[in-house]
Backbone:
């Protein structure tokens, strides 16, 4: 059994405001992440670490579509100054360096190539990069160091509101159809399968809870296009578009089909993407082969007696 260890992350709000510049560092990691709104880029580029070698992300939106650019440089501040003139769509920058400026040109080129490859593989955001650079030749030891560095970086980035490298597709879990959790059931295990049906549109989707994630299973059907009002819950509209762009939702006649199982943050987010409009997940998902709604199932789970401490 794999034992998951916790990690200690320090966020520092430089000017005391959550919306301003911040740094992020992991305990026992040499990496240093600086997140900067574009409105503060001039102040940020006066900081010494912005003259170090590293990789950087420019993040924003163009024509209603989330967009990012991944770059590298031996002086990342100088590179971003050039982009400030050439690219007008980005609204924030993330600069990744190390304490003591320990990265060299080959290291940052490797990290840039790996980040671009990861972003393309996940497909959550459109990249402004015109090419996919090859990985430079590094020694076996340096490759291992850069892969370890990247692993830590991908833990830190979501903490500074960069989610383009989060992989939400999942392998199909093994479940017991119609199972109802007992008081001893582990909250991290798959204990029931849920079904959502919209007969009028020929939709049927199935989902399970795994490790706290609501996972819609591959083969589930969804509306071809978003049918609700775009002004209502724009995050669901964007999520539907993201899944279409990444190929997770593929055309299937007059509908779309989940080509991979996908982990949603809530049952309502899953229901909205499937039905193409704002939908209450607890009221529309049902435990398979029973008359119990997700809401009733959850209430039963919450009513179970608390386990005695060991």
Residues:
């Amino acid at each position: 059994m794999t034992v998951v260890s916790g990690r200690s992350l320090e966020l520092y709000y430089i000017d005391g405001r959550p919306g301003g510049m911040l740094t992020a560092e992991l305990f026992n990691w040499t990496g240093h992440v600086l997140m900067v709104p574009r409105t503060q880029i001039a102040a940020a580029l006066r900081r010494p670490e912005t003259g170090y070698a590293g990789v950087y992300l420019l993040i924003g939106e163009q024509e209603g579509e989330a967009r990012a650019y991944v770059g590298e440089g031996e002086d990342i501040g100088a590179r971003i100054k050039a982009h400030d003139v050439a690219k007008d769509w980005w609204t924030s920058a993330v600069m990744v360096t190390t304490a003591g400026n320990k990265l060299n040109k080959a290291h940052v080129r490797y990290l840039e190539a790996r980040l671009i490859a990861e972003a393309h593989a996940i497909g959550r955001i459109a990249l402004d990069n015109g090419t996919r650079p090859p990985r430079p030749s590094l020694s076996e030891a340096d490759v291992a160091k850069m892969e370890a560095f990247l692993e830590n970086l991908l833990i830190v980035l979501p903490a500074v509101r960069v989610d383009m490298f989060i992989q939400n597709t999942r392998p199909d879990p093994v479940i017991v159809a119609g199972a109802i959790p007992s008081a001893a059931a582990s909250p991290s295990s798959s204990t029931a399968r849920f079904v959502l049906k919209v007969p009028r549109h020929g939709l049927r989707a199935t989902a399970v809870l795994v490790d706290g994630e609501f996972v819609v299973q591959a083969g589930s059907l969804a509306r071809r296009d978003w049918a609700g009002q775009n002004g209502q819950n724009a995050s669901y509209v964007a999520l539907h578009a993201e899944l279409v762009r990444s190929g997770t939702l593929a055309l299937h006649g007059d509908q779309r089909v989940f080509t991979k199982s996908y982990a949603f943050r809530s049952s309502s987010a899953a229901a909205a993407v499937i039905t193409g409009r704002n939908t209450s997940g607890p009221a529309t998902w049902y435990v398979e082969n029973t008359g119990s709604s997700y809401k009733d199932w959850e209430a039963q789970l919450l009513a179970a007696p608390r386990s005695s401490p060991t």
In short: Residues 9-160 form one domain.
